[in-house]
Amino acid sequence: MPDTTPSSAPAASCSPTSYGNSSSTAGRLAQNSIFERFARAGFVVSGIVHLIIGYIAIRLALGGAAGTADQSGAMTELAAKPGGIAALWVGVVAFAIMGLWRLAEAALGSSSRPDADSKKSEVIDRLKAFALAVVYFAFAFSAFGFARGSGKSSSEQSAGVTARLMQTTAGTIVLVAGALVIIAVGGYHVYKGASRSFLDDLEGTTGPLVRRLGMVGYIAKGLAIVSIGLLVILAVSRSEPDKASGLDGAFKTVGAQPYGVALLIAAGVGIITYGLYSFAMARYAKM
Predict the structure, then answer these.
(1) Can you tell me the distance from the alpha carbon of 115 to that of 88, in angstroms, rounded to the nearest whole number?
(2) Which of the ends of the chain has fewer CB neighbours closer than 10 A, N or C?
């Protein structure tokens, strides 16, 4: 997320344009103390989910107990732990508020960049904010299901949706287009980690540990996302919808390759690293 105007700055300091006014409105919303605390709690819950996903991937590589190495599998394991249900309810609220925060940025403009370099960059920032809002609302909905005890496997849902779409030409085109978007998102994560542009999302002084966690975490998560998109294309090309089973399917496919155990352990460690970086984002992310 781009640079944030200090909360103490008066509204008059923003540009007198409608964009400046709307971005200051977004800023006041994001900088509300209660709103901000819950939004930052969302980074903590996201970190916990990524830690569990990485742990499941490593356990899968070492031949341990079965589990689904994706968001739904992580939430299933979290719900089974003491205090897990309470943590999921916190996640519901936190993810929903993070979604509202991004939705406000999409509608009103980013409070971080009231003086956007160009109209094009403003549009791109708003589209990115809207995409993140959708992701966070999806997380909130998923956490809500598992908190109530009615959560469903995301890998099974992905395979089911893929099977239905593959029944028509239009659906197949949608799948391929969606897969390309997923690959692009993953590639952006890799770029963000390799270029260290994620540092623009942070405020204050960050140490080398945070920078290393962000670099490794973004690259690892980006590669995992790219593999999901590639599996969707593979599923379409082979007419095998079960191949498109999300992150869990990607991990299991990696594990089945030569040197799969080492690759899967590396992937699990990478996802854990992103989870640790999420904790740093809870402290340093610009709001």
Answers:
(1) 38
(2) C
Give the per-residue SS3 of the chain. CCCCCCCCCCHHHCCCCHHHHHHHHHHHHHCCHHHHHHHHHHHHHHHHHHHHHHHHHHHHHCCCCCCCCCHHHHHHHHHHCCCHHHHHHHHHHHHHHHHHHHHHHHHHCCCCCCCCCCHHHHHHHHHHHHHHHHHHHHHHHHHHHHHCCCCCCHHHHHHHHHHHHCCCHHHHHHHHHHHHHHHHHHHHHHHHHHHCHHHHHECCCCCHHHHHHHHHHHHHHHHHHHHHHHHHHHHHHHCCHHHCCHHHHHHHHHHCCCCHHHHHHHHHHHHHHHHHHHHHHHHHECC
CB atoms within 10 A of CB 137: 17
pLDDT by position in tens, the chain (length 287): 334 333 333 333 344 444 445 555 555 555 567 777 877 888 998 898 899 888 888 888 887 665 677 777 788 888 888 888 898 898 898 888 888 888 887 887 665 555 455 677 778 778 888 888 888 888 888 889 888 887 776 777 777 777 888 888 888 898 889 889 889 999 999 999 999 999 988 887 788 999 999 999 999 999 988 988 888 888 888 777 776 667 777 777 777 777 778 888 898 899 999 999 999 998 888 87
